Backbone:
């Protein structure tokens, strides 16, 4: 069954070539990541793997120098500061986020999304924050409400800066969720009939009109981002944008399809350091 | 309007490297509010002054073409660690803000 | 005298009026130094903005280095750094030539401040970014083109 799905996917992706074809033989998350890394590094031997955290910026020195100039003193610092205050403000019962998240909320973002065996589904970091809120008698935040969840995570994720992304999919159920995310990533969709991979694997490093396309490895380590230094965007909001750009109907944020996609997509960045919150164009 | 202003000042050789981040919307007066469709009135910082060790080193006029949350970097020769850096701004509505730090 | 004073307070006065006001003792020099130059900032083209800055036909100079992107990541926040190696630099003005009002900032340097300013500017479209430097009573200029595109993937 699994082979069939992958076979179909590969048929739909004739341009992808041998490198990824090898995946279907011994599909495993780490195997997938290594094959993809090999594909990119053989295509772009001059770009170091550690620079993939910069996305498209790694392919363009002019863009990267603007990023560096802006990150030197980011215009969104006061927003992140608001997030710090939210993080430090106790719930009505006196407890705090750090009292209900693992390790006080420090150096944990690289473990998310994780597969929760008890719940039988993927849990994102935002889900974990909402679980923490509801367990303490607070209402859950809307996942795409930037004034609450967005600002809070823009700070909260800085507590994991430098942590190495470490997504695990080891049990059969976890692997099934991972494979579901992979299917979304490689499956063609929308009126333009594009897969996520059409741009971010096959055309990474190429230009789409004026846009330099980023590789999928390194995508997941730095969210949320402040686009234009101002407009806060989460990873799943970005997925939503990608779906719309290929003229597909986006699945709901926080739903199974999006969460499984984030699970698979994040695992491609395993081994790279986390950094929040950053500037993007 | 008491959004904090941030200043970083460090010595590189005998030159102080001063970086300032002001919090301000820097509205041009040309932008329409997405919800109401009304023009958002111009609201931007017009004047910035900076002193190091009591001496004025920078006196700037800004227009609304400076980005939101303006950033300014400048370099001052002859300053030394421990000197006080004071930055003041005022905007077109008469709001003012001030912040200070010492050179690290 | 009252009319003059009102003009000064409205910020509608040109540099010469401010000079008169200083001479007349209406403004202390420290206040006048920072007075916002409305004619220069309201100017709709580079020529009028330069006139407002009291600059006419500045000499092109290779001693002015503009560090700005070839293609702006986002026109709302374009990092621009101007270094003037001209001895005795007293001011640096930055203009985005095709902005509705081109003058972005005018930075008067004193007391050991180096010929250097770093900031971030808004650009509505592809245009020259121009620096105008005053030094020793003369003015100098240099420009660099920055392309501005619409949109962006932001991944």
Residues:
């Amino acid at each position: 069954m699994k082979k069939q799905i992958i076979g179909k996917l590969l048929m739909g992706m004739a341009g992808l070539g041998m490198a990824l074809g090898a995946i279907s033989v011994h599909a495993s998350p780490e195997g997938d990541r290594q094959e993809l890394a090999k594909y990119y590094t053989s295509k772009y031997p001059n770009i170091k793997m550690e620079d993939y955290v910069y996305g498209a910026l790694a392919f363009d020195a002019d863009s990267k120098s603007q990023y560096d100039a802006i990150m030197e003193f980011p215009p969104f610092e006061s927003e992140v500061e608001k997030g710090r205050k939210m993080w430090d403000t106790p719930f009505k019962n006196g407890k705090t986020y750090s009292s209900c998240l693992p390790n006080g909320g420090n150096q944990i973002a690289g473990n998310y999304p994780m597969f929760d065996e008890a719940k039988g589904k993927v849990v994102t970091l935002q889900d974990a924050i909402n679980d923490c809120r509801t367990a303490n008698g607070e209402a859950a935040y809307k996942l795409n409400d930037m004034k609450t969840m967005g600002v809070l995570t823009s700070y909260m994720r800085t507590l994991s800066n430098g942590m190495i992304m470490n997504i695990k999919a080891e049990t059969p159920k976890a692997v099934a969720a991972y494979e579901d995310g992979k299917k979304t990533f490689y499956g063609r969709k929308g009126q333009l009939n594009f897969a996520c991979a059409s741009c971010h694997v096959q055309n990474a490093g190429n230009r789409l009109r004026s846009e330099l396309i980023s590789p999928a490895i390194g995508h997941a380590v730095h969210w949320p981002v402040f686009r234009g230094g101002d407009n806060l965007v989460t990873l799943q909001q970005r997925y939503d944008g990608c779906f719309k750009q290929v003229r597909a109907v986006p699945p709901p944020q926080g739903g199974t399809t999006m969460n499984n996609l984030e699970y698979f997509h994040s695992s491609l960045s395993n081994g790279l350091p986390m950094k929040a919150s950053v500037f993007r164009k | 309007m008491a959004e904090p202003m941030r200043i970083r000042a460090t010595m590189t050789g005998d030159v102080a490297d001063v970086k300032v981040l002001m919090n301000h919307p820097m509205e041009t007066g040309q932008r329409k509010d997405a919800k109401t469709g009304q023009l958002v009135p111009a609201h931007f910082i017009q004047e910035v002054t900076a002193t190091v060790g009591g001496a004025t080193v920078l006196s700037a006029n800004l227009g609304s073409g400076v980005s939101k949350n303006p950033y300014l970097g400048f370099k001052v020769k002859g300053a030394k660690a421990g000197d006080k850096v004071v930055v003041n701004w005022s905007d077109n509505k008469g709001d003012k803000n001030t912040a200070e730090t010492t050179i690290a | 005298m009252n009319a003059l004073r009102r003009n000064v307070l409205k910020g509608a006065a040109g540099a010469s009026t401010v000079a008169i006001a200083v001479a007349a003792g209406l403004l202390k020099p420290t206040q006048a130094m920072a007075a916002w130059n409305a004619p220069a900032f309201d100017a709709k083209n580079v020529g009028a903005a330069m006139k407002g800055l009291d600059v006419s036909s500045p000499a092109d100079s290779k001693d002015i280095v503009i560090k700005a992107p070839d293609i702006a990541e986002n026109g709302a926040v374009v990092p621009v750094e101007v270094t003037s190696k001209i001895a005795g630099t007293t001011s640096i003005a930055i203009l985005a030539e095709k902005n509705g009002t081109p003058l972005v900032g005018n930075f008067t340097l004193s007391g050991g401040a180096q010929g250097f300013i770093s900031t971030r500017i808004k650009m509505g479209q592809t245009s020259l970014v121009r620096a105008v430097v005053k030094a020793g009573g003369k003015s100098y200029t240099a420009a660099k083109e920055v392309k501005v595109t619409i949109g962006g993937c932001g991944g």
